[in-house]
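Consider the following input, taken from an annotated entry for Signal recognition particle protein (Bosea caraganae).
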Amino acid sequence: MFGTLSDRLSGILSGLTRRGSLTEDDVNAALREVRKALLEADVALEVVRTFTEKVRERAVGAEVLKSITPGQQVIKIVNDVLIDTLGGEGEGITFDAVPPVPILMVGLQGSGKTTSTAKIAKRLTERNKKRVLMASLDTRRPAAMEQLAILGQQVGVATLPIVAGQSAVQIARRAVEAARLGGFDVVMLDTAGRVTLDDTLMAEVAEVKAATNPHEVLLVADALTGQDAVNTARAFDARVGLTGIVLTRMDGDGRGGAALSMRAVTGKPIKLVGTGEKTDALEDFHPSRVANRILGMGDIVSLVEKAAATVDADQAQALAQRLAKGNFDLSDMRTQLQQMEKMGGLGGVMGMLPGMKQAQGQLANAGMNDAVIKRQIAIIGSMTPGERKNPDLLKNSRKKRIAAGSGTTPEAINKLLKMHRQMADMMKQMARQKGGMLGKLGQMFGLGGGMPAGMPDPSKMDPAQLAELQKQLGAGGGMPSLPPGGFPGLPKGVTPPAGMMPKLPGLGGGGGLPGLGNPFGKKK
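Applying the prediction step yields:
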């Protein structure tokens, strides 16, 4: 979502870090470029003005101009103001009310309201252990009620039986009563939407709110609509009073202006973001982590959390034991590639690693993307168990058979085998060394080693602290030397920055993150 903005801001601010001292003119020139970048990202003008004034007020003071590292200080100030603009501390959905707790979902047609209702219901059921009842109040859109009923079956959440001829208010009252009699904790009310804002829509939503007195009123807005999403939020807040915002399609290639403007313009927190079409593609909105990603500082906290949520503990333990002995066959490689897919693919993982923006661009130019990962998984899936265990069996005739079965070519199989050999060599080296970089990360987050006293949260570090952390993790961390030819699994010329992990497709050795062993407990 923030790719273009991140590239622009990173380029502007990196120019400041290369200077030994800064003048007020230097800061003002950089802020003019920041202002242009934000406006091009479709951020509301009033938000841009406030943002740049806050940064200028702090950046032209003695704190920066007389600092030993003025460039880093400016980046820290931009990061702090960005976090403040996005909402400071993240806020989630609350349940401090007598059940059943009504949650009213509002928004325009096509914003993803019904799908988001099902995603939230699934999340509340699985993570918060709540009994949820969903009800569709959309009596106008064809098959809207049936759509929610089908989604309810898919996510395992109860839906209110459909009764023809009832109005939205009647359905809402029936849903609340059914939830009370059925012992449900939460009742989610999916209201009707319109293509544009109109009085009929607002009147209906206001009437439903008056009849049900919802604890949460969540606006579902499409992040790709830019300033229109901000105008929609203002209109709904003025008429029905919002308590939070759910932004959908945050995985798209939009400019990100809606996300940066929503909180500042409406004063309402962004509580959740949709990151895909699947019913589990819903994440909490953490302003500090989003700010770090925008400024190219990564999001290691979310990366570890995502790994913890997707790892199969038994599989992780078995693989960790094999890797400890230096064993790494093609089945293990497929497991790691599948693990990367679960964590958001190559781009998703790299986007959470500090300083990887340049490597992401190099990978894209080299044609290394998630489609390549899928083809590699298909190639390994076309092999026999014996061939996966002993790749030396793969002669020309077998390669032709595997290529036909996977829809690839023998050349693609040769590339995969070369990649596997390089990764296997590195796994053996890592097995002989202790205290690797990701092992340290595991200890930092209390995974398998406990949280050291006083260890700061990387998501709240300023750029200078994060840079020092990366330096510590890369220096003296027991990282093995690279084999001839560069980074295993990556095209020639793709070189992640110093101090970062030496192989990306192999991320996950030991069950998701090499060096962590089996820190995650049961599969979630």
